[in-house]
Amino acid sequence: MIRKLRLRFILAALVSILFVLAATIAAINVSNYMKVERETKESLDSVIEYGHQSRLMFYSGNWGGQYGGGQFGGGQGGMGPQDPGRRNQDLNEQYFITVFDESGSIEYDDYTHIAPGDSDAELRQLMSMKIYASGETEGSVGQLRFKRVDTDDTVERVTWEYGPQGPQTVTEEIEVKLTFVAFLDTSERYHNFNNFFVSSMVIAAISYTVLALLIILSSKLVFKTSEESYKKQKAFITNASHELKTPLTIISTDLELIEMDHGKTEWTESIHDQVLRLNTMTKQLVTLSRLDEANLDNYPFATFSLTQLADESIEAFAPTYKNRELTFKHEVGLDIDIRANKYLINELFYIFLDNALKYTKNKGEVTLIVRKNINKKVDIIFSNDIEDDEMDTNQLFERFYRSPKSSSKEGSGIGLSIAKEIIELHKGKVNVSVKEGKIYFNITL
Prior knowledge:
This protein has 445 residues and is an alpha+beta fold.
């Protein structure tokens, strides 16, 4: 029992710490990831702005293309020394930008801010053209994040006219639709994020391991006093049970002598019943005390016929049920073998059949079903008619629990506790339900 409580304490503490630690690490990393994403978007906006400024600066000092003299296509940088975008101190990351005109032709580009320089200009042009053609506004290409922005811009158009005084320039402002496609290298940023994530996980794992060891070690001290008290309690139960056997045997023997001299009376019958009840209770207490140890050495397992054991239990209780005018229905599968402790499984049948005998209402029905389920496990189902439909099924397996309507009937209130310990010792499960005046005990072993 103490060992189970200690294990539950350790498990509850470890699960709680794991939940808190995982939630904390997750919150920190999610927050960090959102920060990285936000900064990445802000950097892309800055790249677009720098590209816009660079383009204007470029054309203010070098007229080109259809809007000036020569080719407006600018092409692959063409950045003058006055360009504010070159190695801008406010943006220390690597990036490149391409500007497309209304026809989809490259109107301006700047590939000088990303390694290895102009050697990959053709590839970057192709990447930009692909994004332009796809119409995507945001996304990723490998470790590069991109953003596309469609905007209107005003440029000065310069033309030559020949007049009386000779050739002269005419400047006019026109609006053009431009598309900016910016790429940002986020490898270093996300590399730092991944390093932080891995570091936080390693620190969390080390912290959890240290806390787990401290909890396991401290739990010994926490439960030491309880364990000593529990051992004393078990020793008391065992000693008291042995001490009670002698006076109960003497009372039973003296009672038989009295009946031989004076005959049986209702008083001697009552004494017999109480002696039997005390003997049963002391036996149950010893059994419960030994089961609490959850030590299989006390109850070795072997393979035996559960069908035969069930039939023997049915045969033993059938006459008593008949005398009580109870209907006893049973359905036992053929050739069901089980590896378990035969004594305890026999005790399990006895407890539930005896419980049904005590608490089934007058002329009620008792049912026992033993079968194999689809998972090749064994189902044992006990059910009986009851008068108390409002009993608390959650407390039925508590020691010494008696429902208000059954407190006047015979019983110690520990039989079902023993049954539960037997089921748990065999790694089984039991479910209780009350439906339409019947109580069902569904046991799976």
